[in-house]
Amino acid sequence: MGLSWSSAQPAEQALPDGGGRAPAQSPEEPVAASGPPREEERVEDLPWDGLEALRREVAALRDSPPWFVREVGELRVPPLLCSSEGDLRKPPWPNSLGPWDLVLLVSGSPDPTPPEVDAAPEVEVVASQADVAACGGSVSIFRALPSVGTWLLPRFRSCPVGQGAKPREVARKASSLENPRAYDAFFRVRIRFDNEWPRSPPDTVRFQCVIHHALLDDDGSLPMPFYRTLPKDESGQHSLLGVVSALRGFLLNPLKAWGIEEDDAPEKFRQQLKALQQTNEQRLRTIQRYSQQVKHPELFASPLRLREEWFAPSLWRAAQVGTPEAWRSILHEHLPGEIFSFEMFTSDFCNRFVEEIFNFYASGLPAKRPNSMNNYGIILNEIGLEPFIDELQRMLQPLGECLWPNPGSAWDGHHCFIVRYRENEDLGLDMHTDDSDVTFNVCLGLDFEGAGIQFCGVMGAADHRKHSYTYKHVRGTCVCHLGRKRHGADDIVSGERLNMILWNHSSTYRQSTEYNEPDYDKENGPPDQVCVSYTHDRDFGVFRDYPKRKEHFLGKGWCPPKDFEYDGFKPDTEKR
């Protein structure tokens, strides 16, 4: 396979590789990213001695990486932090106590051929009760395992010496849990260090790319056993090489890497692990096969460059200047502080992108749908366009931070997809909120009437289900809003409409109290008819008839929660 998600730059962008199994070679030269610089700062000349040692480790790995590591970046200070109490803050500068982020690529490919390629040296695991206590002191190490992996907790909660800590002692036998094609690619990983390194493991390790794995949580973070089994040298210290070697072991076979016999794992866990391996293998296969028949190779180029001629001149100028004033100058503010639009793509680029989408439809390759409400869309990250979306997100990041400083900051993930509306297919979209911190929605065409967006209130506000604005799509123009803003698409009257939706995610913001415990107010009155949802609302049938083939939603809604109902509320399950 050999798709390479590059991230050596501060933007943490992703670039595709040319193909073939991960070769034994040095990383490519860093590639200058387009657009203005991010707020991340390079770590330079800070006083802690351990930081200097870490910088030397990073330099050594960059100069002489094992074959399964590429594109080793620079240590950087993250632009936003979340405290253990859930408070968001920007890190101080200069930052002598951390944290510091390192982004690089790690492959889960089998050992390359020829066999004389040197593997990473094996490091003896030395665990003491003091080490275990220090390990247990890190809150991030105890992040919850996915439910399918909770059977592992008793094995690692106390982390006794010699248990789950010597992967080299696991029998070298064929395993049904090893799928050599499942992770035969390079994946972007962020390793976050604090000033306890190298006495303690990294603070967090997470994948910053699309990857399907049964033991990764929703934001791509590694589970607790990964940290507990990280190797140490004879002096009781971790090493960067040990961490990246453990990452490869996790991709190849996490149980073997953690010193657990396959037969000890519950059957449900083994089935789930293999199912997600197959899902990831299918994704890589689809991307590889489509790479041989793309219509516009420049959208999939390696390295990828955003081109000036793709974008509206006003957007390109704002991105080059990079100031808040430059960004605000291109905006049309439809609803103060909540709904904005701006010209994004040229007409020529819209044509080009639509041609590529229809070319994929014609390929007959499997398409993963965006969600249960969009039956004819395509997830762009699943067909090889993840590098393009990475660059686009990086370009738009300053705008997000300008408009919404916390949800618009420190984006490190995305879900990007096409929605399609036309007769005899999806006509419109029920009222909903997005699983997004900030949403960009750009119309690509074609010719159509109707299918505007109806906006209501923000989730949890007293006017959550009160109409606030009707937006009419314009080709090449993007509308942006918080994911918590309730909205829905009117039915299309004629023609066909394609839109590209970019959901931006910040793992830091999603740790915060602001995100996890938002205010929720009692509704200030009955909802406006246009704002009710047959999918979510308990009173939909009071105001509108259920659409055909949607009657099964009756009685399944949750909104409004029982403690926040407006005066006189009656659920539609009661006879009127």
Key traits:
576 residues, alpha+beta, 8-stranded antiparallel sheet, 4-stranded antiparallel sheet, 13 helices, 23% helix, disordered N terminus
Number of helices: 13
Largest sheet: 8 strands, antiparallel
Mean of pLDDT: 81
The helix content is: 10-25%
* Total strand segments: 20
CA-based gyration radius: 25 Å
Span between N and C termini? 60 Å
Structural class: alpha+beta
Low-confidence stretches: 1-48, 114-144, 158-172
Beta-strand content estimate: 15-25%
Principal-axis shape: globular
Could you describe the 3D structure shown?
By secondary structure, the chain is of the alpha+beta class. 23% of the residues lie in helices and 17% in strands. The protein has 13 helices and 20 strands. Strand 9 and strand 10 form a beta hairpin. The longest helix has 25 residues. It is globular, with a radius of gyration of 25 Å. The N terminus is likely disordered.
Summarize the structure.
The chain has 576 residues and is an alpha+beta fold.
Task: Describe the protein's topology.
Blueprint: E1 41-42, H1 49-63, E2 69-70, E3 76-77, E4 81-82, E5 88-89, E6 100-107, H2 129-136, H3 153-156, E7 186-193, E8 204-207, H4 224-228, H5 240-252, H6 254-257, H7 267-291, H8 313-321, H9 324-328, E9 332-335, E10 339-343, H10 347-363, E11 378-379, H11 386-403, E12 413-422, E13 429-432, E14 438-445, E15 448-450, E16 453-458, E17 469-471, E18 477-482, E19 485-489, E20 492-505, H12 513-516, H13 540-543
Antiparallel strand pairs: 1-3, 2-6, 4-5, 6-7, 7-8, 9-10, 10-18, 11-12, 12-20, 13-19, 14-18, 14-20, 15-20, 16-17, 16-19
